[in-house]
């Protein structure tokens, strides 16, 4: 969901040996530091390990316990996406079929060229994920600069926190902003660059924690991810030191929709994590899981709590993709193009309006608020899997 117009009123053991040949790195202690991990290589090895148990099955831990899930379609998808007809009953089986095909490819012995193609495509998807998410928020810069910066970070290279006015990156960002009739001040140019760099570092951190270390989503991971995302990026109404990695203490709203009152944010976040763990435990008991619906649900819940002063939209999409990767080996790149941004924002806004409409009702009286978002994600996930397979098999 795009950023609203604000109105102010115990350590777990490392799982570094869980996946054969997997490269993992400790959590970042400095949000300005790049991770030293090649995400493409590590995610390829993770996918090979977690998808090896049989067609349509993924293996992940829930609260430290190894669990097998069969990917199964939930019944609550929408049959429209932004007023366009959509049939999840056709698309979901096609997605599972592509997942099975990917599983077969991963279990075969890939030659070095195929491994490189797989890893490069994963990195490209992550770049487009960051770019699209930034575009939704009118943040960052163009795809070329985003590509160069993100690729270096996702390959484990260090990038400098700041650059000079004569640096090629600086000049390219300034040219883009001039073309788009945006401010070309030094502060604006450096902010655009930092919005890319910190977004990529935040993505690398959350993906490493949830997917490579196979940890459960927690408030601590969410707070640290936000701290990295917003490091040295001031909000409109506060310097970064006053809101980065900190739950908000002011009211915020988007249009007529007012998000959770600040005094309730900590308890709502605790409740969200508790509910997620309950859903996963129930899935472990039943042996079936729809990763699309699960990720859509908690993306919706998070963004409607809106726990931070700024950065909630980008954070919800980092949670979305980290959960999709963890439980389904999908990456979805939302918001790259105007029509997709429009559809995403309309869907998110309509879901928030539903929250207002049914506020105070009993849970059993409420509709599934995130079903249209789930259909949008499903459409993207199917296309993403198809492109990945095509890239490997060229």
UniProtKB/TrEMBL annotation:
Keywords noted in UniProt: ATP-binding, Nucleotide-binding
List of residues binding ATP: 310-317
Listed Pfam families: Fic
Positions of the Fido domain: 217-379
Gene3D superfamilies tied to this protein: Fido-like domain
Signal sequence segment: none
GO molecular function: ATP binding
Coiled coil: none
Active site per UniProt: 306
Protein name: Fido domain-containing protein
Record organism: Penicillium subrubescens
């Amino acid at each position: 969901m795009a950023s609203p117009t604000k109105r102010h009123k115990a350590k777990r053991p490392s799982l570094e040996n869980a996946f054969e040949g997997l490269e993992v790195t400790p959590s970042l202690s400095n949000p300005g530091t790049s991770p030293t991990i090649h995400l493409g290589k590590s995610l390829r090895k993770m996918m090979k390990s977690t998808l090896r148990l049989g067609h349509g099955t993924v293996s992940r831990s829930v609260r430290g316990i190894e669990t097998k899930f069969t990917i199964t379609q939930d019944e609550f998808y929408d049959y429209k996406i932004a007023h366009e007809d959509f049939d999840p009953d056709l698309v979901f089986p096609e997605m599972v079929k592509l997942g099975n095909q990917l599983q077969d490819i991963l279990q075969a012995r890939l030659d070095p060229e195929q491994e490189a193609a797989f890893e490069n495509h994963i990195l490209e998807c992550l770049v487009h994920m960051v770019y699209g998410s930034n575009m939704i928020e009118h943040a960052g810069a163009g795809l070329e600069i985003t590509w160069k910066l993100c690729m270096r970070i996702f390959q484990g290279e260090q990038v400098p926190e700041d650059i000079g006015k004569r640096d090629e990156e600086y000049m390219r960002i300034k040219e883009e902003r001039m073309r788009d009739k945006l401010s070309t001040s030094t502060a604006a140019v450096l902010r655009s660059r930092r919005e890319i760099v910190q977004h990529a570092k935040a993505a690398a951190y959350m993906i490493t924690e949830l997917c490579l270390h196979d940890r459960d989503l927690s408030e601590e991971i969410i707070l640290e991810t936000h701290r990295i995302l917003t490091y040295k990026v001031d909000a409109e109404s506060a310097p970064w030191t006053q809101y980065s990695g900190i739950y908000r203490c002011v009211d915020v709203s988007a249009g007529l929709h007012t998000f959770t009152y600040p005094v309730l944010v900590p308890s709502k976040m605790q409740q969200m994590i508790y509910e997620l763990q309950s859903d996963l435990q129930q899935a472990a008991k039943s042996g079936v899981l729809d990763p699309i619906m699960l990720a859509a649900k908690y993306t919706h819940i998070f963004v409607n709590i809106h726990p931070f002063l700024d950065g909630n939209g980008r954070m919800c999409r980092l949670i979305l993709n980290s959960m999709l990767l963890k439980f389904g080996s999908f990456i979805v790149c939302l918001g790259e193009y105007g029509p997709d941004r429009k559809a995403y924002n309309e869907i998110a806004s309509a879901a928030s309006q539903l929250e207002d409409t049914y506020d105070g009702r009993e849970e059993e009286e409420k509709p599934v608020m995130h079903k249209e978002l789930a259909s949008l994600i499903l459409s993207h996930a199917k296309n993403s899997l198809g492109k990945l397979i095509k890239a490997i098999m060229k």
